[in-house]
């Protein structure tokens, strides 16, 4: 059970890192500012006393749920990049793992223990942040998305995809190169989505669709986010903003995750960490 020992020490290490504490403090401040902003918006609406106030609040709640969840998606991804880019490579560069490896621990246990610790911390962070935002929205507007559980699960899968890519990268590349490659792939996919929206408006473009599909295969997080946003918005709201005509906007999606993409995500999350374990097992430290 060496992986449990590695996971426990990794959890302690994560909590002691200043960047983790800084992100937690900033997250609490962000939730507080979001609460004040939404409270001011609702108070101004109540003072105006518009017709169909309850319906208007539900509409605002649905919009805020998507925007807040998009913020959660970005924050969770940024947290994953900052914490895990040097999961293995930073300790290899510092010479720490050269001391640990001769112990009665298999190298696979070291990688799995670290992956598990980061997955638990980042998964908990994503869940707390998402439920915190949605709780504030429900408190002020009365809107609670029916697809909340599905959206949260998709957000967690998006985080695990990025973690999987960083795991295999950290076992193979220097820390800076690993973080840079993961960040570029993470940013390139929504840019390809935006290009696809433009071509949907001006005319079909098979080339752009293929490029977008390629980027989604390399980094599925954006496809998972679009499916999560579709789960957060009721069908009435999707029809109102014309999502079914455009299918996907750069931020909001109208389509659920396809079975083929779901299978690819499952393979991505499992296979890449296994490749990282295999690479680390044969790497000269």
UniProtKB/TrEMBL annotation:
Record carries keyword tRNA processing: no
Residue stretches in coiled coil: none
GO cellular component labels: plasma membrane
Gene Ontology molecular function: ABC-type transporter activity
Keywords: Membrane, Transmembrane, Transmembrane helix
Pfam families found in the cross-reference section: ABC2_membrane_2
Residue intervals passing through the bilayer: 20-42, 54-74, 115-139, 151-173, 179-202, 261-281
Domain of life: Bacteria
Record bears the keyword tRNA-binding: no
PANTHER family the UniProt entry points to: ABC TRANSPORTER PERMEASE
The protein's name: ABC transporter permease
């Amino acid at each position: 059970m060496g992986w449990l020992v590695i996971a426990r020490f990794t959890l302690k290490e994560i909590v002691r890192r200043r960047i983790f504490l800084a992100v937690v403090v900033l997250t609490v401040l962000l939730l507080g500012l979001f609460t004040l902003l939404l409270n001011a918006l609702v108070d101004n609406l109540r003072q105006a006393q518009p017709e169909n106030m309850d319906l208007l609040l539900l509409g605002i709640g649905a919009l805020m749920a998507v925007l807040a969840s998009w913020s959660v998606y970005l924050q969770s991804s940024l947290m994953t990049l900052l914490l895990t880019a040097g999961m293995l490579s930073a300790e290899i560069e510092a010479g720490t793992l050269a001391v640990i490896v001769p112990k009665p621990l298999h190298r696979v246990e070291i990688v799995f223990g670290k992956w598990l610790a980061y997955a638990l911390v980042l998964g908990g962070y994503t869940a707390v942040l998402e439920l915190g935002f949605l709780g504030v929205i429900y408190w002020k507007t009365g809107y609670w998305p029916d697809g909340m559980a599905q959206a949260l699960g998709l957000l967690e899968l998006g985080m695990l995809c990025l973690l999987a890519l960083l795991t295999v990268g950290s076992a193979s590349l220097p820390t800076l190169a690993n973080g840079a490659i993961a960040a570029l792939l993470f940013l390139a996919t929504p840019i390809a989505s935006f290009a696809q929206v433009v071509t949907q408006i001006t005319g079909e473009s098979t080339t752009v669709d293929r490029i977008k599909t390629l980027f989604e295969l390399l980094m599925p997080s954006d496809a998972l986010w679009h499916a999560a946003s579709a789960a957060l918005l009721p069908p009435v709201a999707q029809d109102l903003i014309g999502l079914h005509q455009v299918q996907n906007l750069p931020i909001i999606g109208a389509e659920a995750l396809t079975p083929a993409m779901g299978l690819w995500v499952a393979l991505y999350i499992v296979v890449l960490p296994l490749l990282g374990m295999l690479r680390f097992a044969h790497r000269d430290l």
